[in-house]
Amino acid sequence: MKIGSPGKIVVSGLAAGLASFIVGSALYMNPLVSAVYSTATFTCSKQMGSFGGLGNWLMLMLAGGLFSTVFLALLYAHAEKGIGIRPAWKKGLFFGVLTWLAFSLPKAYYAWLMYDYPDVLLVIETVNGLAGGIVAG
């Protein structure tokens, strides 16, 4: 099994992470979703001020997203030959949905079970997670 160069994998992961961050930011910061978040009550969430404000919080979100997409790019580089789907964009779509099923969906399910978190926000975050998975895939 031939795997792409480490540099290419990292660059691919960073590009996917940046694209996913941009799409996620547009989905979460649009006026409709922002209005839902502004009216929701959270009993245990950290405020952005505890990270030094919105700018620092966004940079931490970006860093975490880039780390995870570089990891997923490495995983994809090892697994893509075993995904018997053509063309490449369909293979990427399949991988993105698969990662959503493996990570975002269980996270939302357990949050629903364990936390007093507004259902509408769980739905928004689960749908946005699917969009991010598709973009990153």
Describe the protein in words.
The chain is mainly alpha-helical and 137 residues long. The chain is built from 5 helices and no strands. It has helices at 6-28, 31-39, 54-79, 88-114, 119-136. Helix 4 runs antiparallel to helix 5. The mean pLDDT is 86.
Brief summary of the model shown:
The chain is mainly α and 137 residues long. It has helices spanning 6-28, 31-39, 54-79, 88-114, 119-136.
Average per-residue pLDDT, rounded, comes to 86
Write down how many β-strands occur, each being a DSSP E stretch of 2 or more residues.
0
Helicity, in percent? Answer: over 70%
What is the end-to-end distance?
20 Å
Which stretches of 5+ consecutive residues score pLDDT under 50? none
Rg (CA only)? 16 Å
Following the backbone from N to C, one meets helices and strands in this order, namely HHHHH
Q: What amount of the residues lies in strands?
A: under 5%
Q: Report the sheet with the most strands, covering strand number, pairing sense and barrel closure.
A: none
Q: What best-fitting shape do the alpha-carbon axes yield?
A: globular
Name the structural class.
mainly alpha
- How many helices? The count is 5
